[in-house]
Amino acid sequence: MKRILQNLARRWSELSLALQFLVAGGFGLLAVMLVVGSWVTSQIRDGVIRNSAATTALYVDSVIAPLLPDLRKNEQLSESVKQALDETLGQGALGKRLVSFKLWRRDGTVLYAKEADLIGRRFGLTANLRSAFQGNVTAQLDTFDEDEDKERALGEPLLEIYNPVREPWSGEVVAVTEFFEVATDFKATLASALLSSWLVVAGTTLAAFLLLSGLVLRASRTIDDQRGALRRQVSELQGLVTQNSALRQRVQRASRRATALNERYLRRIGADLHDGPAQLVALAALRMDSPVFSGDGQWGESRTTEVAMIRKTLEDAMREIRGICTGLVLPQIEAAAATDILRLAVDEHERRTGTSVALTLPRQLPETGPSEKISIYRFVQEGLNNAYRHGRAKDQAVRAGMKNGRLFVEVSDGGPGFDPARVEGLGLAGLRERVESIGGQFETLTGAQGTRLVIRLSVEEQA
């Protein structure tokens, strides 16, 4: 039983507020309608019966009262009075309306009745008789006592009325008339009135239920919409939290890798300086110790040749130093647009290598931040260097544009390709770390037909 109640409670809680109101409110308003309708119809029924009984009693009393003697002095009715009552109650409109008539004395004795065998008999006072002797007109519809089988057997709707008979000069109740009135029309009118009252109560209840249902449905729909929006926001927030956590981990990994890469950069720069300019300078220094410079003036022509060789060696060393510095120092790109940065990187590569690069740009690219600009310049610089060194400078191309709300830059060549897992060098590894650290994507596509490097950056496109 407990499990059943728990299941019902769970299913009830799963219903929407609107359905809960439709069920609970519907049953509640139905119960209220039945209670109010029963009370209203009961009041209407009692009021209509009481008013109709009072009208009929007044009419009967106006007809019967002149025929009755002074009942305080006469405890029995004379034959002439009985005959007058028989004639009055047996004919005319009153005779057709009344199917039974009794005149009661205070002690329960029947002074007169349409059924002659009841005259003179004594019965116990009923509640209606006692109320009538207290001066109240009472009535009841289709309700019969045990000794009223004859009236019940008629099969017609009857209105039983108890009317007090008062003494004209004192107003004291001296007798009670009890009579049954044919109430066919009255019952039909009463039924119509009760039906109308039920319709009014039901209509009012239905209108109130529909109005409340409309308000609750609207409120429930608003709550459901807000709940759905809240769930979406919570879901988005959870996604952002997860994404931020992943980005934080990526930044931490990138920071650790950047430290290692910086060390590798420094070692490579040191190696380049040692193997290039340092060797050339050392060679020039050795030539300075040549006997050409330490002897007398007989080495004039040889000295000139040796000075020319030293000068060429030092010029080669300076050129290599400038090449290394050119790769390390960035041009002024902070204030440049993305398209200008791409053209600058391509022009610098063409000037330095003497090769050509196919550049494809849209009319306008969105504005980017300093980190994105540096990443774009370094990416194009390193990509074209690889295309020149490993791709034999074949079909070098740079392309940029917007796709799916993101800026992409692509560097491609028609070289033999390489294995990214084995050959991706220090420059590309550093670029990958740089791009991923600012939330971008780095992609390497290579094969026998050539190599294609692509980066994608999240930027807001501006008009």
UniProtKB/TrEMBL annotation:
One of its GO terms (molecular function) is protein histidine kinase activity. Residues 374-459 form the Histidine kinase/HSP90-like ATPase domain. It comes from the Bacteria. The keyword Transmembrane applies. The chain crosses the membrane at residues 21-40, 195-217. The keyword Transferase applies. SUPFAM superfamilies: ATPase domain of HSP90 chaperone/DNA topoisomerase II/histidine kinase. Keywords: Coiled coil, Kinase, Membrane, Transferase, Transmembrane, Transmembrane helix, Two-component regulatory system. Residues 237-264 form a coiled coil. Pfam families: HATPase_c. CDD domains: HATPase_UhpB-NarQ-NarX-like (cd16917). It catalyses: ATP + protein L-histidine = ADP + protein N-phospho-L-histidine. InterPro entries: HATPase_C_sf, HATPase_dom, Sensor_HK_TwoCompSys. Its EC number is 2.7.13.3. GO terms for biological process: phosphorelay signal transduction system. PANTHER family: NITRATE/NITRITE SENSOR PROTEIN NARX-RELATED, NITRATE_NITRITE SENSOR PROTEIN NARQ. This is histidine kinase.
